[in-house]
Amino acid sequence: MTYSNFAAWRDRKLTETPDVSVVIPAYDERDRIVPTIGAISAHLCSSGLTWELIVSDDGSGDGTADLVRSLRLANASVLEPGVNRGKGAAVRDGVIAAAGRCILFTDADMSTPIEEFDRLFEAITRGAGIAVASRAADGAEERGRGYGRTVLSAALRGGVRRATGVRVKDTQCGFKLFTRESAHALFQAARVDGFSFDLEILWLAQRWGLEVAEVPVRWFEAPGSKVRAGRESLRFLGDVAALRYRDIRGAYSSHRIAEAIA
Length: 262
Fold this sequence. Notes:
Strand content: 15-25%
Enzyme class: transferase
Largest sheet: 7 strands, mixed
Strand order of the largest sheet: 3-2-1-4-7-5-8
Keywords: Endoplasmic reticulum, Glycosyltransferase, Membrane, Signal-anchor, Transferase, Transmembrane, Transmembrane helix
CATH architecture: Alpha-Beta Complex
Structural class: alpha/beta
CATH class: Alpha Beta
Pfam families: Glycos_transf_2
EC number: 2.4.1.117
Pathway: Protein modification; protein glycosylation
CATH topology: Spore Coat Polysaccharide Biosynthesis Protein SpsA, Chain A
Order of helices and strands: HEHEHEHEHEEHEHHEEHH
Protein backbone atom coordinates (compact mmCIF):
# COMPACT_ATOMS: atom_id res chain seq x y z
CA MET A 1 0.00 0.00 0.00
CA THR A 2 1.56 3.30 -1.10
CA TYR A 3 0.40 6.89 -0.94
CA SER A 4 -0.26 6.85 -4.68
CA ASN A 5 -3.28 4.65 -3.99
CA PHE A 6 -5.01 7.76 -2.64
CA ALA A 7 -4.37 10.05 -5.61
CA ALA A 8 -7.87 9.58 -7.04
CA TRP A 9 -9.41 10.64 -3.74
CA ARG A 10 -7.22 13.58 -2.78
CA ASP A 11 -9.20 16.17 -4.74
CA ARG A 12 -12.70 14.85 -4.06
CA LYS A 13 -13.63 17.57 -1.62
CA LEU A 14 -17.26 17.40 -0.60
CA THR A 15 -19.56 20.27 -1.49
CA GLU A 16 -22.66 18.81 0.17
CA THR A 17 -23.67 16.59 3.07
CA PRO A 18 -21.97 13.21 2.59
CA ASP A 19 -24.00 10.02 2.49
CA VAL A 20 -21.64 8.33 4.94
CA SER A 21 -19.16 9.42 7.60
CA VAL A 22 -16.57 6.84 8.63
CA VAL A 23 -15.10 7.27 12.12
CA ILE A 24 -11.92 5.37 13.02
CA PRO A 25 -10.78 5.54 16.66
CA ALA A 26 -7.00 5.22 16.67
CA TYR A 27 -4.42 4.61 19.37
CA ASP A 28 -0.88 3.93 18.12
CA GLU A 29 -2.11 2.65 14.75
CA ARG A 30 0.67 4.01 12.54
CA ASP A 31 1.56 0.56 11.21
CA ARG A 32 -1.92 -0.22 9.85
CA ILE A 33 -3.87 3.01 9.47
CA VAL A 34 -2.77 3.58 5.84
CA PRO A 35 -3.89 0.13 4.57
CA THR A 36 -7.14 0.57 6.49
CA ILE A 37 -7.83 3.96 4.90
CA GLY A 38 -6.92 2.50 1.52
CA ALA A 39 -9.42 -0.34 1.89
CA ILE A 40 -12.18 2.02 3.00
CA SER A 41 -11.42 4.43 0.16
CA ALA A 42 -11.47 1.69 -2.48
CA HIS A 43 -14.76 0.22 -1.31
CA LEU A 44 -16.71 3.42 -0.76
CA CYS A 45 -15.44 5.08 -3.94
CA SER A 46 -16.81 2.09 -5.86
CA SER A 47 -20.16 2.25 -4.06
CA GLY A 48 -21.37 5.50 -5.62
CA LEU A 49 -21.87 7.04 -2.17
CA THR A 50 -20.34 10.32 -1.07
CA TRP A 51 -18.42 10.09 2.16
CA GLU A 52 -15.98 11.59 4.62
CA LEU A 53 -13.39 10.05 6.92
CA ILE A 54 -12.68 11.10 10.50
CA VAL A 55 -9.70 9.62 12.34
CA SER A 56 -10.21 10.26 16.05
CA ASP A 57 -6.80 9.91 17.65
CA ASP A 58 -6.76 8.81 21.29
CA GLY A 59 -3.44 10.25 22.37
CA SER A 60 -1.23 8.14 20.12
CA GLY A 61 2.50 8.40 20.73
CA ASP A 62 3.62 6.93 17.41
CA GLY A 63 2.66 9.72 15.02
CA THR A 64 -0.61 8.19 13.79
CA ALA A 65 -2.32 11.58 13.46
CA ASP A 66 0.61 13.17 11.61
CA LEU A 67 0.73 10.25 9.18
CA VAL A 68 -2.96 10.59 8.32
CA ARG A 69 -2.58 14.34 7.79
CA SER A 70 0.40 13.71 5.51
CA LEU A 71 -1.87 11.83 3.09
CA ARG A 72 -3.57 15.16 2.27
CA LEU A 73 -6.93 13.57 1.62
CA ALA A 74 -9.63 16.10 0.80
CA ASN A 75 -12.42 14.27 2.61
CA ALA A 76 -10.40 13.31 5.69
CA SER A 77 -10.00 15.06 9.01
CA VAL A 78 -8.11 14.22 12.18
CA LEU A 79 -9.32 14.86 15.72
CA GLU A 80 -6.43 15.01 18.15
CA PRO A 81 -7.16 16.01 21.77
CA GLY A 82 -3.61 15.05 22.73
CA VAL A 83 -4.48 12.79 25.66
CA ASN A 84 -5.46 9.15 26.01
CA ARG A 85 -9.03 9.06 27.33
CA GLY A 86 -10.27 5.74 25.99
CA LYS A 87 -11.88 4.27 22.90
CA GLY A 88 -15.37 5.39 23.89
CA ALA A 89 -14.29 9.02 24.14
CA ALA A 90 -12.51 8.84 20.78
CA VAL A 91 -15.54 7.35 19.04
CA ARG A 92 -17.86 9.86 20.71
CA ASP A 93 -15.77 12.83 19.53
CA GLY A 94 -15.71 11.47 15.98
CA VAL A 95 -19.41 10.69 15.82
CA ILE A 96 -20.48 14.08 17.15
CA ALA A 97 -18.20 15.77 14.59
CA ALA A 98 -19.55 13.66 11.71
CA ALA A 99 -21.87 15.22 9.13
CA GLY A 100 -22.92 12.16 7.12
CA ARG A 101 -26.49 10.98 6.76
CA CYS A 102 -25.19 7.67 8.10
CA ILE A 103 -22.25 7.28 10.47
CA LEU A 104 -20.08 4.17 10.60
CA PHE A 105 -17.47 3.54 13.22
CA THR A 106 -14.92 0.84 12.56
CA ASP A 107 -11.87 -0.39 14.38
CA ALA A 108 -8.55 0.46 12.76
CA ASP A 109 -7.55 -3.21 12.54
CA MET A 110 -10.39 -3.97 10.11
CA SER A 111 -11.23 -7.25 11.84
CA THR A 112 -14.60 -6.72 10.19
CA PRO A 113 -13.81 -6.12 6.50
CA ILE A 114 -15.17 -2.88 5.05
CA GLU A 115 -17.15 -4.93 2.51
CA GLU A 116 -19.50 -5.84 5.37
CA PHE A 117 -20.64 -2.20 5.33
CA ASP A 118 -23.03 -3.12 2.52
CA ARG A 119 -25.00 -5.47 4.77
CA LEU A 120 -25.32 -2.85 7.48
CA PHE A 121 -26.26 -0.13 5.01
CA GLU A 122 -29.05 -2.32 3.68
CA ALA A 123 -30.44 -2.67 7.20
CA ILE A 124 -30.40 1.11 7.64
CA THR A 125 -32.20 1.64 4.32
CA ARG A 126 -34.89 -0.74 5.57
CA GLY A 127 -35.56 1.52 8.53
CA ALA A 128 -33.20 0.54 11.35
CA GLY A 129 -31.74 3.33 13.45
CA ILE A 130 -28.65 1.25 14.18
CA ALA A 131 -27.11 -1.71 12.35
CA VAL A 132 -24.75 -3.75 14.51
CA ALA A 133 -22.16 -6.11 13.06
CA SER A 134 -22.42 -9.38 14.97
CA ARG A 135 -20.15 -12.37 15.42
CA ALA A 136 -22.90 -14.17 17.32
CA ALA A 137 -25.86 -13.85 14.93
CA ASP A 138 -26.89 -16.79 12.77
CA GLY A 139 -24.78 -16.83 9.62
CA ALA A 140 -21.78 -14.99 11.08
CA GLU A 141 -18.25 -16.18 10.33
CA GLU A 142 -15.56 -15.80 13.00
CA ARG A 143 -11.97 -16.88 12.40
CA GLY A 144 -8.62 -16.72 14.14
CA ARG A 145 -9.73 -16.30 17.74
CA GLY A 146 -8.24 -18.72 20.26
CA TYR A 147 -10.38 -21.13 22.25
CA GLY A 148 -9.86 -19.33 25.55
CA ARG A 149 -10.90 -15.94 24.21
CA THR A 150 -13.88 -17.49 22.43
CA VAL A 151 -15.15 -19.04 25.67
CA LEU A 152 -14.54 -15.85 27.65
CA SER A 153 -16.33 -13.76 25.03
CA ALA A 154 -19.37 -16.04 25.04
CA ALA A 155 -19.53 -16.01 28.84
CA LEU A 156 -19.34 -12.22 28.94
CA ARG A 157 -22.07 -11.89 26.33
CA GLY A 158 -24.38 -14.06 28.37
CA GLY A 159 -23.61 -12.21 31.59
CA VAL A 160 -24.14 -8.82 30.02
CA ARG A 161 -27.51 -9.78 28.58
CA ARG A 162 -28.69 -11.00 31.97
CA ALA A 163 -27.33 -7.97 33.84
CA THR A 164 -28.58 -5.26 31.49
CA GLY A 165 -31.42 -6.76 29.49
CA VAL A 166 -29.76 -5.71 26.22
CA ARG A 167 -31.05 -8.07 23.55
CA VAL A 168 -28.19 -7.68 21.07
CA LYS A 169 -26.09 -10.86 21.20
CA ASP A 170 -22.76 -9.21 20.34
CA THR A 171 -22.46 -5.72 21.79
CA GLN A 172 -18.70 -5.35 21.35
CA CYS A 173 -17.96 -5.87 17.66
CA GLY A 174 -16.20 -2.70 16.50
CA PHE A 175 -18.28 -2.08 13.40
CA LYS A 176 -21.60 -0.26 13.76
CA LEU A 177 -23.65 1.96 11.45
CA PHE A 178 -26.13 4.61 12.62
CA THR A 179 -28.44 7.14 11.11
CA ARG A 180 -27.02 10.58 11.88
CA GLU A 181 -29.99 11.45 14.09
CA SER A 182 -29.67 8.30 16.18
CA ALA A 183 -25.89 8.57 16.43
CA HIS A 184 -25.83 12.17 17.59
CA ALA A 185 -28.59 11.66 20.15
CA LEU A 186 -27.03 8.52 21.60
CA PHE A 187 -23.44 9.73 21.78
CA GLN A 188 -24.42 13.08 23.26
CA ALA A 189 -26.09 11.14 26.07
CA ALA A 190 -23.24 8.65 26.51
CA ARG A 191 -20.92 8.73 29.52
CA VAL A 192 -18.55 5.77 29.11
CA ASP A 193 -15.07 6.69 27.85
CA GLY A 194 -13.62 3.18 27.77
CA PHE A 195 -13.96 -0.17 26.08
CA SER A 196 -17.60 -0.86 27.01
CA PHE A 197 -19.10 2.26 25.44
CA ASP A 198 -20.83 0.03 22.85
CA LEU A 199 -22.90 -1.57 25.59
CA GLU A 200 -24.01 1.82 26.91
CA ILE A 201 -25.02 2.95 23.42
CA LEU A 202 -27.06 -0.19 22.75
CA TRP A 203 -28.64 -0.07 26.19
CA LEU A 204 -29.75 3.51 25.56
CA ALA A 205 -31.02 2.63 22.09
CA GLN A 206 -33.14 -0.20 23.48
CA ARG A 207 -34.43 1.99 26.29
CA TRP A 208 -35.41 4.71 23.82
CA GLY A 209 -37.13 2.27 21.48
CA LEU A 210 -34.79 2.64 18.51
CA GLU A 211 -34.82 -0.18 15.99
CA VAL A 212 -31.54 -2.10 16.19
CA ALA A 213 -30.67 -4.61 13.46
CA GLU A 214 -28.09 -7.25 14.38
CA VAL A 215 -26.35 -8.25 11.16
CA PRO A 216 -24.15 -11.37 10.79
CA VAL A 217 -20.72 -10.52 9.41
CA ARG A 218 -17.34 -12.02 8.64
CA TRP A 219 -14.81 -11.29 11.38
CA PHE A 220 -11.12 -12.18 11.53
CA GLU A 221 -8.83 -11.87 14.56
CA ALA A 222 -6.30 -9.20 13.61
CA PRO A 223 -2.64 -9.65 14.53
CA GLY A 224 -1.31 -7.17 17.06
CA SER A 225 -4.61 -6.70 18.90
CA LYS A 226 -4.36 -4.20 21.76
CA VAL A 227 -7.24 -5.79 23.68
CA ARG A 228 -6.11 -7.75 26.74
CA ALA A 229 -8.98 -10.12 27.38
CA GLY A 230 -8.59 -10.63 31.12
CA ARG A 231 -7.99 -6.99 32.03
CA GLU A 232 -10.67 -5.67 29.69
CA SER A 233 -13.18 -8.22 31.01
CA LEU A 234 -12.74 -6.89 34.54
CA ARG A 235 -13.12 -3.31 33.34
CA PHE A 236 -16.15 -4.32 31.32
CA LEU A 237 -17.88 -5.82 34.35
CA GLY A 238 -17.08 -2.68 36.32
CA ASP A 239 -18.61 -0.55 33.57
CA VAL A 240 -21.78 -2.68 33.63
CA ALA A 241 -22.14 -1.96 37.34
CA ALA A 242 -21.44 1.74 36.74
CA LEU A 243 -24.07 1.83 34.00
CA ARG A 244 -26.70 0.48 36.35
CA TYR A 245 -25.62 2.93 39.05
CA ARG A 246 -25.81 5.94 36.74
CA ASP A 247 -29.25 4.86 35.62
CA ILE A 248 -30.48 4.61 39.21
CA ARG A 249 -29.04 8.06 39.92
CA GLY A 250 -30.86 9.52 36.90
CA ALA A 251 -27.79 10.33 34.79
CA TYR A 252 -29.65 9.57 31.58
CA SER A 253 -33.07 10.90 32.49
CA SER A 254 -32.64 14.34 30.89
CA HIS A 255 -32.12 12.86 27.43
CA ARG A 256 -35.18 12.20 25.31
CA ILE A 257 -34.75 10.54 21.96
CA ALA A 258 -37.95 12.03 20.54
CA GLU A 259 -36.62 15.53 21.13
CA ALA A 260 -33.10 14.70 19.98
CA ILE A 261 -34.07 13.34 16.58
CA ALA A 262 -37.04 15.62 15.89
